[in-house]
Design brief:
Chain lengths: 270, 190, 190
């Protein structure tokens, strides 16, 4: 169970420091390196236990506590910046020690009262995590043990960005949003109308771009039937009402001509 | 010392993982120990690799700066699917502008701005025109002679419509119904 | 319709071209036309490819988020020569913190500190998050509502795992837990 080999405490000028130096004089920078080697007080504690080839469940708390405290004291003497966590552990060990030295109360339940139990439990959990850290580190790792593809491909040149998708629902929703704004701000009324009337209005305007005049009758085709005639008629009425076109008739019953209304006509000097 | 299988594996892996092409000399320097393998052996192995990949989805080619793996040229079009982006979304402003042109055509930009209460950016009108959904059908004979916009046949095609009348009814809550929404109550005989 | 050689070439090229792992489903959706090839055919082809690359310098592996090609792990040391930077070596403190999140997730920072007996430096948590290995999955409903950390799919991918279960267990079996009894059998030897 116990580790057989000594774990190096750290490295000083390339040389591994395996044991705590026996003589009292340790260069401060060396101890600093040693301190940095431990990932925390649990690590230091586990090191002290393993160094004596002991099972966690068999720890001689008094010895370990003494060693731990010596270690921490030495660091303090050298005025190293010691993480408070090390002192917390020292206090905890001191408390266990004092409880072990106290005479037991006669009715005390041995198993529950053993102050070592909690320490042993913590050490076991910490040891389990140390194992986990080793397993994780041993796993083949991308960027350390294996690398991913960096090969060349011309495929990106073929990538095109598709145009945004719009649904009819998007349009109708947008229109009802607009309608609600109108309701909030406007009083004007818009009469009922057919969308096909609106489309026919666009067509009439478009036709009038090419020709200055169109005959009224040209806007009615037999193939569209009665409904088509109504649409054309409504479109013309709407365009007249919006002052976009004007109708002219030379004499009663003659053909009506449609032309774009030119507002600047009246200012035309010619 | 490496045997020929190990050498081939090593060169194959190096070319696969290195973003830039590598020459035989670079390969010898970077992944082989000094004196371990002759340059001739490296070159021979590269030729073997080229042969191995002849009928595969990737090929080992020699370009100006060295050897590199690349996907077969005839697969490019298909592989583009790996990076195909999701279509972006149009802004609310664009959709509202489009909706007004659909429902209120022919309409000028000024009229759209008046109804929406905010100005319509030129880029919106440009986008809609480039998409082929709207066109200028004329000018309104008012001062400034603004252009009149309407929807196109392509718009109807893209939305699977025969006529604009097929647009779905607009769902506005009952209490918010105004004269505006009467547009839904289409009735030829009205 | 594609024949099996074309399908193999296409999947091979796709996996080479795309460094992030791809599932059989993603491959079917991204590089194949709808209805062109069954998912079973894609999966069978992936297995064939895995077999084809068994003795090569790169291998086709399955990790948590799908299939990917990567260089053989036993070439790692040699291939490291390709890069100026040395591969990262993580400190004991970082590995212990990661191990706690891996094996005891979801876990709070306070719980990690309690077990390790030392405060967890912010830089460690930041490194783990920047690598994309850990993430906050919620808060623990205790005073202060501390954040709960867990591992990500990217962690599994980077450590060549499909699931966390593939890592060896760290808890000693129940019958070896004799702490209490062992203590009671001992005398103080000081």
């Amino acid at each position: 169970m116990a580790e057989q080999q000594s774990l190096p405490l750290g490295f000083v000028r390339g040389e591994p420091v395996v044991e705590k130096p026996e003589d009292l004089y340790i260069p401060p920078d060396a101890l600093e390196v040693i301190l940095e080697t431990f990932s925390g007080p649990m690590d230091l504690l586990l090191y002290l236990i393993r160094r004596q080839k002991l099972d966690i469940v068999d720890i001689p708390v008094l010895t370990i506590t003494r060693q731990y405290v010596e270690y921490v004291e030495m660091m303090k003497e050298l005025k190293l910046e010691l993480a408070a966590d090390y002192l917390v552990m020292a206090a905890m060990l001191a408390e266990i020690k004092s409880r072990l030295l106290l005479p037991k109360a006669p009715q005390e339940d041995d198993e529950e009262a053993d102050p070592r139990a909690e320490l042993v439990r913590r050490l076991q959990e910490y040891e389990a995590i140390r194992r986990g850290a080793e397993y994780i580190d041993a796993q083949p790792q991308t960027g350390r043990d294996s690398w991913l593809s960096e090969i060349h491909t011309d495929a990106r040149e073929y990538v095109t960005t598709p145009p945004p998708e719009v649904t009819l629902e998007d349009i109708t929703l947008a229109f009802s949003r607009v309608l609600q704004t109108i309701k909030l701000q406007a009083h004007h009324q818009i009469k009922r109308e057919q969308l096909s009337t609106r489309a026919r209005m666009s067509q009439v305007i478009e036709l009038l771009q090419e020709k200055s005049y169109i005959s009224f009758s040209k806007l009615f085709t037999r193939s569209e039937g009665r409904a088509g005639a109504v649409v054309s008629f409504l479109a013309i009425l709407e365009l007249v009402k919006e002052s976009m076109i004007e109708l002219t008739q030379m004499e009663p019953m003659s053909d009506i001509h449609i032309r774009l209304k030119r507002q600047h006509d009246e200012f035309d000097p010619a | 010392m490496m045997n020929s299988t190990q050498l081939k594996q090593l060169l194959e892996a190096a070319l696969f993982a290195h973003p830039q092409p590598l020459t035989a000399e670079q390969l010898q320097q970077l992944v082989l120990n000094a004196g371990e393998t002759s340059l001739a052996a490296v070159k021979a192995t590269l030729q073997e690799l080229q042969h191995d990949y002849q009928e595969r989805g990737i090929e080992l080619v020699k370009v100006a700066s060295g050897y590199r793996f690349q996907t077969r040229a005839d697969l490019g079009q298909r592989l583009a699917g790996l990076w195909q982006e999701k279509p972006p979304r149009y802004s609310q402003a664009l959709l509202e502008t489009l909706a007004l042109i659909v429902y209120r055509q022919p309409i000028t930009r000024g009229e759209i701005e008046q109804i929406r209460g905010v100005s319509v950016s030129s880029s919106i009108m440009k986008t809609l025109q480039e998409r082929g959904w709207i066109k200028v059908v004329g000018v309104k004979e008012v001062p400034g002679r603004p252009q009149l916009y309407a929807t196109t046949a392509e718009f109807l095609d893209d939305f699977n419509l025969q006529t604009l009348d097929e647009l779905p009814a607009i769902d506005v809550p009952e209490d918010e119904r105004t004269a505006e929404t009467a547009i839904n109550e289409r009735d030829l005989n009205d």
